[in-house]
Amino acid sequence: MRNTYVQFLVSFVALAAAPFVLSLFHLNLLSEILILAIFALSLNVLVGFTGLVSLGHAAFFGVGAYTAAVVAQNVSADMFVTLGLAVAGSFLLAAVIGMFCIKVSGFYFLMLTLAFSQMIYSFIHQSTNLTGGSNGLSGIPRPEMGSFIFGNPVLIFYLVLAVFFVSYAVLRMIVKSPYGQVLVGIRENETRVKSMGYNTGFYKYSAFILAGIFGGVSGALYTYFNGFIAPSDVYWTMSGTALIMVLVGGAGTMLGPVLGAALIVVLETIVSSYVDQWMLVLGLVFITFVVFFPKGIVGIGQSLYKNAVKKKPVYEKKKSRAA
Amino acid sequence: MSMDNILTISSVGKSFGGLHILKDISLEVKKGERIGIIGPNGAGKTTFFNLLTGDLAPSTGEIYHYEENITKQPNYKRARNGIVRTFQKNNLLNELTVLDNLLLVLQRKRGLGRVWYKPRGARKYPGLYEEADELMNKWGLYHQRDIVVKNLSYGEQRQIEILLGVATEPSILLLDEPTAGMSQSETDYIVDLLHKLPRDLTLMIIEHDLDIVFGLSDRMVVLYDGGVLVEGRPEQVRMDKRVNEIYIGSGDEATC
To answer: In what residue span(s) does the ABC transporter domain sit (chain B) (predicted)?
Structure first.
């Protein structure tokens, strides 16, 4: 099981079998988890690997989702067109916003990303002709591929699953590459990385764009999945939720955001069916993790694993941070 | 500026607001030369280094690397072109292993920094990992290869600072108080290590322990109150009245 390809294959087969096992309700839940997992993974490139805490990631999700929706309604529902333009849209947005946000760091980065994303939100909220304003867009045609239509939730699930695996594999490859290690270096100590001869501005900017693109991909998938999109999905609380997923799952790991997304979606579904105050419960979960398990679900898993396999305590050997 | 000058520093000064930290400093550094920089606290030694590495921009004057005017060049470009520094306070990637710290330096040297499509690993980048292992072996640090830097002692981290500095084979290495905050035995070890540096490596070293600088340097520069007080061979500086005065006067070590 140590082999990455084997792990990939096993989890892919297991997930691909889901439609045969799960009810439609649970299958939809799984689709939603995978979509939000891509969203959290993309944010994790910034937060977990580069050390840039963004509170504006919903902007890319929203631009991806709305682009896919508007294009599907007015131009073509072909998946290559809608997804391609969603990626192009979020790329452009990230390229523009990134130029400004990368100039600052820490608290100012957080506030600047928040400000930009709220600008996008109000644009979407007010451009009634284009986006339907506060009503959002509904009746969005299902994605097509040539003459094939992803017409039911099972087909949508397989589409989401395929995109999820491609996104996961690509992001994993990138964060483990020499380029990705420079990002980790910037997270740890940007001054040092600069004095090693790296133009850290370039790395932060490209990481910002990378995160934006995959944020847009998840947004487009969300439109495919829901057939409906509303401005609330671009609101800053959406960015906050993604941030919580990353932190609860384990920032700076690949598996963390996926587990975080799963936990939050499952919690929301279960808890909100019993109590109205689901946000209260989410808050408690978040606080518990931040105080007691700052390394998230993955961190808990690692320490359990460490205890199971007896460990010499003298020097803490480094565990590979990316699962 | 002559061809064999690695650095030519011409009337460089630095002010913060109305405060003149450095005034009108000129210095030529020849290839292979080892220059010791001493001076009491607040003389502007570290500021001087920051100007050379591009961590600060000079207010006046110009700096040349060989024949290239680098006064306005950003710090990462200077590092790439061979002006490399160590820091007065340990400034490493604390959550990463010694190996990962070193790999980051070496992958830059090999121009691999922007390779995003091939995960890093010993099998995929054999030359890179071999070079890292060789370097650690050479400096006797191989046993720390997989240890996370924050778990090393202060003195051990200091050695890693120097290791990262020499790893890229810089054209000039700026050492900012390499023995600061170390015990006597750790200091001895570092001094030993510095003496083992290749003789053709150009060095500039700031150090409070005068015995160490006198032993290492070909030439000494004494900074005082933002200017060059004395410049000359170690013997000359050792005998200089003014140098003795400021060191005794400021209550610093007067061991010279």
So the answer is: 7-250
Long-range contacts of B188-196 (CB under 8 A, 24+ apart): B189/B155, B189/B159, B190/B155, B190/B158, B190/B159, B190/B162, B191/B215, B191/B216, B193/B139, B193/B159, B193/B162, B194/B162
Provide ipTM, 2 decimals: 0.88
Number of H helices, E strands in chain B: 9, 10
Strands (E), chain A: 137-138, 144-145, 148-149, 228-229
Cross-chain Cβ contact A200/B76 below 8 Å: yes
B111 and chain A: CB distance < 8 Å anywhere?
no
Q: CATH says A2-292 is which class?
A: mainly alpha
Indicate the pTM of the whole model. 0.90
Write the DSSP assignment of A168-226 as a string of letters. Answer: HHHHHHHHHSHHHHHHHHHHHHHHHHHHTT--HHHHHHHHHHHHHHHHHHHHHHHHHHH
Going from N- to C-terminal start, the domains of chain B cover 5-89+171-255
Q: Do B55 and A195 touch (CB under 8 A)?
A: yes
For A203, which residue in chain B has the nearest alpha carbon? B114
For residues B139 and B160, what is the distance between their CA atoms, to the nearest angstrom?
10
Q: Say if residues A56 and A236 touch (Cβ distance below 8 Å).
A: yes
- Which chain A residues are Cβ-neighbours of B96 within 8 angstroms? 184-185, 188, 318
- Could you say which architecture CATH assigns to the domain B5-89+171-255? 3-Layer(aba) Sandwich (3.40)
- In sequence order, the β-bridge partners of residue A229 are A137
Query: Considering only CB atoms, which chain A residues are within 8 Å of B93?
Result: 184-185, 188-189, 192-193
Q: Which of A172, A178, A194 sits opposite B75 (nearest CB)?
A: A194
Mean pLDDT of chain B: 89
Residue A284 one-letter amino acid = L
For residue B229, how many C-alpha atoms fall within 13 Å in the half-sphere facing its CB?
22
Gap between the Cα atoms of B215 and B225, Å rounded:
25
Q: Which residues on A lie below 8 Å from B171 (Cβ)?
A: none
**Cα distances (Å, whole numbers) of residue A166 to A9, A71, A258, A321, B118:** 13, 23, 14, 20, 15
- H or E segment and range at residue B230: strand B227-232
Listed by start position, the domains of chain A span: 2-292, 297-323
Q: How far apart are CA A66 and CA A60, in angstroms?
A: 10
- Whether residue B104 and residue A315 make contact (CB cut-off 8 A), yes or no, is no
Closest by Cα among B35, B67, B11 to B175: B35
Kindly determine whether residue A179 and residue B114, on different chains, have CB atoms separated by under 8 Å. Answer: yes
* Nearest-by-CA chain A residue for B97: A318
d(CA B222, CA A85): 63
Position B88 pLDDT exceeds 70:
yes
Contact between B120 and A177 under an 8 Å Cβ cutoff? The reply is yes
Nearest to A196 by CA among B2, B175, B106: B106
